[in-house]
Write a structure and sequence with these properties.
Structural class: mainly beta
Distance between the termini: 45 Å
Number of strands: 17
Strand content: 25-35%
């Protein structure tokens, strides 16, 4: 189609029918303005009538082992860390605390790179080496969330130092959860990923 357009031979509407079924893409499928046609010769991309086309950037995970502790698999070297996990068409939730609702930031720190939590929110014995803080910046009405790795934990100051920052900071009253903590793997369907061993549980 691009070659036809470049040659000036694309002078009527065109429909591109994608074959039905699911396909995993190893790289983004990039469209440009050249792929949409013009007002006189539009290009329509569609599935066959009554069929479904799924183009997925996801990877199918194989090689699971099952034990009393649940399901475990080691991802191949070079596989990107999972951000989402789907099983039989249903999204699974990353292990998190609290199990229901949110924690609330206790104080506004002096810098944007840390979060001060309320007494009892974070157990000092938890392994936070792969943990992520998911915070909703709603103290000033900002409609934004951040997902930031935990860099350090100081239980004596109830402070999480974040390996990253957001433009809004962690203000008192912000809602937040702690994700990807192995000790939080306590509900059916939850998952945890260890990026050092590449183990998904």
């Amino acid at each position: 189609l691009r070659a036809l357009r470049a040659a000036g031979a694309l002078d009527r509407p065109v429909e591109v029918e994608l074959a039905a079924g699911a396909r995993s893409l190893a790289a983004p499928w990039t469209f440009t303005a050249d792929d949409s046609g013009t007002a006189d010769a539009p290009v329509t991309w569609r599935a066959p009538e009554g069929e479904e086309v799924v183009l997925s950037g996801g990877l199918e995970i194989e090689g699971w082992s099952v034990s009393d502790d649940g399901w475990t698999v080691t991802l191949p070297e070079g596989t990107p860390p999972p951000a989402h996990l789907w099983v039989d068409g249903a999204r699974r939730v990353r292990a998190h605390e609290p199990d229901e609702g949110w924690f609330t930031t206790a104080e506004t720190p002096g810098d944007y790179g840390s979060l001060i939590y309320a007494e009892g929110d974070v157990d000092p014995s938890w392994d936070l080496s792969a943990a992520l803080v998911h915070v909703v910046h709603d103290a000033f009405g900002a409609w934004e969330t951040s997902l930031l790795p935990v860099g350090d934990h100081d239980p004596s100051r109830r402070t999480l130092t974040l390996a990253g920052s957001s433009m809004w900071g962690q203000q008192a009253g912000n809602r937040w959860t702690l994700e990807n903590v192995p000790e939080a793997l306590d509900e059916p369907g939850e998952w945890f990923y260890d990026d050092v061993t590449r183990t998904l549980r």
